[in-house]
Amino acid sequence: MIEIVGGGLIGLSCAWELGRRGIDAVVYERDPLGSGSASWAGAGMLAAAAEAFPDAEWQRIANESAAMYPEWVAAIGGSIDFVAAGEAGEGHVDPRDLLRELSAQVEVRRRDVASLDELDGEQVVVCAGAWASRLGGMPTVEPIKGYLLAWDGFSPGTLPGILRSGHTYVFQRRGGRVIAGSTEERVGFDRTMDAARLRELGERAVELCPALKGARPDTAWCGLRPASLDLRPVLRRIDQRTVAAYGHYRNGILLAPWTARWVAGEIQRQLGK
Ligand SMILES: Cc1cc2nc3c(=O)[nH]c(=O)nc-3n(C[C@H](O)[C@H](O)[C@H](O)COP(=O)(O)OP(=O)(O)OC[C@H]3O[C@@H](n4cnc5c(N)ncnc54)[C@H](O)[C@@H]3O)c2cc1C
Questions:
Q1: What is the arithmetic mean of pLDDT over 95-118?
Q2: Is the CB of 146 under 6 A from ligand 1?
Q3: Of 60, 67, 231, 264, which is the most exposed, with the fewest CB atoms less than 10 Å away?
């Protein structure tokens, strides 16, 4: 049995991909449906072209992962709010739909893993996001807090595509919900909501998208992006039993299918399957 610590998008995607290859995996997640995860909080832009990646290799991987998305979403099936990248610009996906569909197809157990020593799987995959280095012996990762705002009253198709200026973006899910982001702060694991930051994000969003002027956001939330010290995802074998797959920082939703494929391949190699 393969044990996966963390049921955010990365952990669930790894379990799903292993399952596709006939390898049993169980995901341990402490929160219902990863509700405290970065994946739950993420905007879901598949921004391989707009984001700055740490080097040419990660840019190539980002492009490849974006290209995997249409087939991946179709293979997962169910009801996923997804727009593929194309002539209208970059794609996007609702990560909560992915979490729901994937967790219905893999084995997830509610469990808060205190130490990797308590696990007895033949292989262990650490997908614990910003919390991964709390598990001990794992490369350092730090939380970078980000806020998002959402407006629900707009008809689908009101916005032309993804509007972006620097780190501010506004776009509309296929279902109509308008999403605006984001902010970046190093404030540890604090997830309290700060009204001044939200107001400032709202003002930036209106500047970028005048259609939002006068409309009050319906929802605001924040999440913790997992960032390694050099901002590269930590995607490597740690020892004979342990694989790390975390630290995807601003692009873990985009990088999920590629990461799952890499992890499943690595596990298969190790098991000789
Ligand atoms: C505001 C914001 C906007 C973003 N926008 C985008 C975007 O547009 N596009 C994009 O690609 N990415 C975006 N991201 C980044 C993306 O969300 C993350 O990179 C990605 O979700 C990381 O996934 P993960 O599974 O590694 O971590 P997480 O989703 O954080 O999942 C880790 C899970 O592990 C669980 N866990 C941790 N420790 C333990 C333990 N000891 N035992 C049991 N469970 C444990 C946690 O509860 C959590 O559910 C955004 C992030 C934020 C915060």
A1: 98
A2: yes
A3: 60
